[in-house]
From TrEMBL:
<dbReference type="GO" id="GO:0016020">
    <property type="term" value="C:membrane"/>
</dbReference>
<dbReference type="Pfam" id="PF01554">
    <property type="entry name" value="MatE"/>
</dbReference>
<feature type="transmembrane region" description="Helical">
    <location>
        <begin position="68"/>
        <end position="90"/>
    </location>
</feature>
<dbReference type="GO" id="GO:0042910">
    <property type="term" value="F:xenobiotic transmembrane transporter activity"/>
</dbReference>
<feature type="transmembrane region" description="Helical">
    <location>
        <begin position="7"/>
        <end position="23"/>
    </location>
</feature>
<comment type="similarity">
    <text>Belongs to the multi antimicrobial extrusion (MATE) (TC 2.A.66.1) family.</text>
</comment>
<protein>
    <submittedName>
        <fullName>Uncharacterized protein</fullName>
    </submittedName>
</protein>
<feature type="transmembrane region" description="Helical">
    <location>
        <begin position="139"/>
        <end position="162"/>
    </location>
</feature>
<feature type="transmembrane region" description="Helical">
    <location>
        <begin position="174"/>
        <end position="193"/>
    </location>
</feature>
<keyword id="KW-0812">Transmembrane</keyword>
<keyword id="KW-0472">Membrane</keyword>
<dbReference type="InterPro" id="IPR002528">
    <property type="entry name" value="MATE_fam"/>
</dbReference>
<dbReference type="GO" id="GO:0015297">
    <property type="term" value="F:antiporter activity"/>
</dbReference>
<keyword id="KW-1133">Transmembrane helix</keyword>
<feature type="transmembrane region" description="Helical">
    <location>
        <begin position="35"/>
        <end position="56"/>
    </location>
</feature>
<feature type="transmembrane region" description="Helical">
    <location>
        <begin position="110"/>
        <end position="127"/>
    </location>
</feature>
Length: 262
């Protein structure tokens, strides 16, 4: 599962790198957007999916295989609802960042970058849920493969969108969103057609709505812990935005954080 995380973060990092090649302001905006979206969306959805590790683990241990699929559907419903609220927050990124005393020019680029990541936040929620669902069944190799393929595709698509189309800066986050949906699509196809998931996935059912409350009891505390964990480091990036020459200090602090957490 370590490699799965590496491939996912490589997608985000590669997009930031491509944006950074366009100029210092673009790099600062992309890194600030990366930190902003990590705290306000990525961490929260990753925490929500943590409920599945407990619920699916219990169901798998009790050999209630059909219940695994129901828990997965309930978790996907929850992540979709919260993704809508996250998207609304992300849409108003620029005024929020300016309110937090970030440089206006950097905030404008960060907001633009964030808006093109909005489609990908829904995919990320599904991705984390399916990942937890498969992990509790000790299905580890397929997620690694289906994370490596989107990253390989992402490298080419991101480069073309940034340097070969009129999108330019906007192409970097758009490519990241597209790559996340490719990853989810591959995992979903495996989920539906793999014989290893026959007993745990029987298709969509209305029963999943009855499992939402049980899921939320574990998901919300898990999401809160994950957000606090991310905030401990990402707040340094926001503080860097308050310093002189924020175009330079913001990406420097962000790169330090990436190296320290790897």
């Amino acid at each position: 599962m370590i490699l799965v995380s590496v491939f996912y973060y490589s997608i985000r990092l590669f997009s930031v790198m491509l944006a950074g090649h366009l100029g210092e302001l673009e790099l600062a905006g992309a890194t600030l957007a990366n930190s902003w979206t990590s705290v306000t969306g990525i961490a929260f959805l990753a925490g929500l999916s943590g409920a599945l590790e407990t619920l699916c683990g219990q169901a798998f241990g009790a050999k209630l295989y059909r219940t695994l699929g129901i828990h997965l559907q309930a978790s996907c419903i929850i992540s979709s609802i919260f993704s809508i609220f996250i998207s609304i927050l992300w849409y108003f990124t620029e005024p929020v960042l300016i309110f937090l005393h970030q440089e206006p020019d950097i905030s404008r680029y960060a907001a633009l970058y964030t808006k093109f990541l909005i489609p990908g936040i829904f995919a990320y929620g599904f991705f984390k849920n399916i990942l937890s669902f498969l992990q509790t069944q000790t299905i580890l190799l397929p997620p690694m493969i289906f994370s490596a393929i989107p990253f390989a595709i992402h490298v080419g698509v991101a480069y073309c969108l940034v340097h070969k189309t009129a999108l330019g800066f906007e192409g970097a986050p758009l490519a990241a969103s597209l790559s996340m949906w490719v990853c989810v699509l591959l995992l979903a196809l495996y989920l539906v057609f793999s014989k290893r998931c026959e007993s745990s996935w029987e298709g969509f059912t209305m029963e999943s709505f009855g499992y939402i409350a049980v899921n939320l009891k574990l998901a919300l505390p898990s999401a809160a812990m994950k957000c606090l964990e991310y905030c401990a480091f990402e707040i340094l990036v926001f503080l860097a935005g308050l310093m002189k020459d924020a175009e330079i200090t913001t990406p420097l602090i962000s790169m330090w954080y990436v190296n320290a957490s790897s």
